[in-house]
Design goal:
Elements (H helix, E strand, L loop, with lengths): L13 H4 L1 H10 L28 E2 L35 E7 L6 E10 L5 E3 L4 E6 L4 E3 L1 E2 L7 E3 L4 E9 L10 E7 L7 E4 L17 E2 L3 E2 L7
Parallel strand pairs: 7-12
Antiparallel strand pairs: 1-2, 2-3, 3-9, 4-8, 5-6, 5-10, 9-12, 9-13, 10-11
Length: 226
């Protein structure tokens, strides 16, 4: 059974949110990496279980209110919005999966995919909410990358996805180990909890290639229907 966690969205940079975590990580690494800047923690999710595989997650519709993603900054319509008459894609009609698509030794990519598993079309637009949990029990939120978001229509069986980009830990130290991510679809409050499918994060000062960001949700080309 898959359960979900609620999360409160925070707007904190990875450099700011991980200070306390990285201080312990650096001690374990005998000084590998550099320290972060000021301290500020992100939102925390509620108690629950993950699917434990990094695969599909299912939203819990009995959960209370949370801080979800947003369509703020959405661009012009793509011609696939049916005049705004289609309901938003709610967590109850979506499945979520996460996969490691990293191909670079410096910058990592984790892709989160939402699939419409209901019979009716739904509309998805904007940025999701993403809170990441570390092995030390801390939680921090991920910033948006500033790209334009555009509304998309998902038919049954079709998918939309977004990327989480992060600095790969190739320093030789243990870095920061992530365990789970609490992902909330745009304009929703019910989150999915998924296992973090990639490696550890490098210990950085939060600048340059140390930036961690999320992209807006975009429809996957040629998504299979049904």
């Amino acid at each position: 059974m898959r359960t979900t966690l609620r999360s409160r969205k925070r707007t904190a940079t990875i450099g700011a949110a991980l200070t306390a975590v990285l201080a312990l990580a650096l001690t374990a690494c005998n000084g590998d990496g550099s320290a972060l800047g000021s301290t500020q923690t992100g939102g925390t999710g509620g108690a629950g279980r993950t699917d434990g595989t990094g695969g599909a997650g299912k939203a819990d519709q009995s959960a209370g209110t949370g801080t979800g993603g947003s369509d703020q900054g959405a661009g012009s319509n793509t011609g696939d919005t049916n005049g705004g008459k289609v309901d938003m894609c709610r967590s109850g009609v979506l499945d979520a999966t996460a996969a490691n698509n990293t191909t670079d030794e410096t910058n990592g990519v984790v892709t989160v995919t939402f699939k419409n598993v209901a019979g009716a079309d739904c509309r998805i637009s904007g940025f999701p909410g993403v809170d990441l949990k570390t092995s030390l029990g801390d939680t921090f939120s991920v910033h948006r990358n500033g790209e334009q978001a555009a509304p998309q229509i998902l038919k049954e069986g079709e998918t939309a996805a977004f990327n989480i980009t992060f600095p790969v830990n190739n320093t030789g130290g243990s870095g920061v180990r992530l365990t789970d991510m609490v992902v909330t679809p745009p304009n929703e409050t019910e989150p999915f909890t998924l296992r973090w499918p990639a490696g550890t994060l490098a210990v950085t000062d939060g600048e340059g290639d140390g930036k961690m960001e999320i992209s807006p949700v975009s429809k996957v080309s040629d998504s299979p229907a049904g």
